[in-house]
Please model this.
Amino acid sequence: MRNWQVERRKRTRHLIELGGLVVKAGIVDLTDDDRAMIYGALIWMADKLNSEDGARARELWAGKGKEAFATEQETRAPTTSHIRHDQA
Model:
């Protein structure tokens, strides 16, 4: 496979993952898939990150995202509490 194809696939995967975050956050449903509204919200977010409050926004939003990922991981992780140890 050529290098440009590998790079294109990496970029495509990255964009799909970012789109998945928009869906996972519920933004698509909350906006009724209004692309202009979603884009406007992203522009507002970029403006906020470029403002003097940008560091605070990064801290708050990163914390909220990490917490959400951790919660999701906990709810998806299989548990072994239902397995009896004497069955092994």
